[in-house]
Amino acid sequence: METERFARVRAVFFDLDDTLCGYWDAAKTGLRRTFEAMPLPGLATEEAVLEWAAAFREFCPSLKRSEWYERYLIDGRSTRVELMRRTLLRVGIDDPARAEALADRYGAERRAALRLFPGTREVLEELRARYPLGLITNGPADVQREEVSDLGLEPLFRWVFIEGELGFGKPDQRVFRLAEQASGLSGDELAFVGNSYRHDVRPALEAGWRTVWIRRPSDVPPSADPSAKPEGKPDGAPDADAEIADLRELASLLP
Ligand SMILES: [Mg+2]
Fold it and tell me: Would you say domain 2-22+115-253 falls under CATH 3.40.50.1000?
């Protein structure tokens, strides 16, 4: 029985983006609205989004190893502007002021479009009556704090660990050690719920925690090429303790 795997759990930690809230959906909506309002010459909205996605795929794999990472930890705007600058360059426009205007519009549109998945608040309220809850989320400090506050999550979580504030994030084991120290719990007393195998499930398994992998068909970033599928598990990698398609399954899975 899956539920027996969780019998000793005393606290539950969650990932934020695309686990509790639809960050990819908000990003897609935000990009579409931005390029509708501020079109790139000669390009339909969807074509402009594809140019942004191509610029993202070039820029982001090296982000964490580049001089951009220190700035990215503090604020999301500098890399947002750089991505728009590179998007414009791809279509032959060298205009830093326009890149800033596009990036600011995109940041505002994405923020306005961000929503919790259906039933999330109810599940968190119910679990919170049973366990202390924590968040472990990657991303810039300002963007992540804004999300937590906009979504009204602060009162629900006893612990919030943000990559931008710590200077490191998942899959780095140090963030799991911090959560263990904060909660005074370890191993099978802790459960982690997340949407990414690489950033959530695998490092939590390596930390000895119980893991729940939430897998939704919509879990594809706007930067992916159009035929991309949601993230899978590498061949031979260990399984999560449970896989769910909807957070509402947690209420019966956990003791
Ligand atoms: Mg996530």
Answer: yes
Q: Which residues contact 187 (CB under 8 A, 6 or more apart)?
A: 208, 209
Compute, in angstroms, the gap from residue 75 CA to the centroid of ligand 1.
Answer: 18
Instruction: State the pLDDT confidence band at 68, using cuts at 50, 70 and 90.
Output: confident
Longest dimension (CA), the chain: 59
40 CA distance to ligand 1 centroid (A)?
30
What's the gap in Å between 194 CA and the centre of ligand 1? 6
Q: How far apart are CA 9 and CA 186, in angstroms?
A: 9
Q: What confidence tens digit (pLDDT) does each residue in 74-129 have?
A: 889 999 999 999 999 999 999 999 999 999 999 999 999 999 999 999 999 999 99
For residue 136, the CA-to-ligand 1 centroid distance in Å is 10
The CA–CA distances, whole Å, from 211 to 32, 199, 201, 214 equal 35, 12, 6, 10
Best CA proximity match to 109, nearest among 193, 188, 25, 1? 25
219 versus 185: which is more confidently predicted? Answer: 185
The model's pLDDT over 227-254, given as tens digits with 9 standing for 90+, comes to: 888 999 999 999 999 999 999 999 999 9
Whether omega for the bond prior to residue 171 falls within 30 degrees of 0, making it cis, is yes
Is 193:15 a contact under the CB 8 Å cutoff? yes
Q: Cα-Cα-Cα-Cα dihedral of 212, 213, 217, 223, to 10°?
A: 140
15 CA → ligand 1 middle, Å: 6
The alpha carbon of 121 and the centre of ligand 1 are apart by a number of angstroms equal to 17
Report the pLDDT value the prediction gives residue 1, as an integer from 0 to 100. Answer: 55
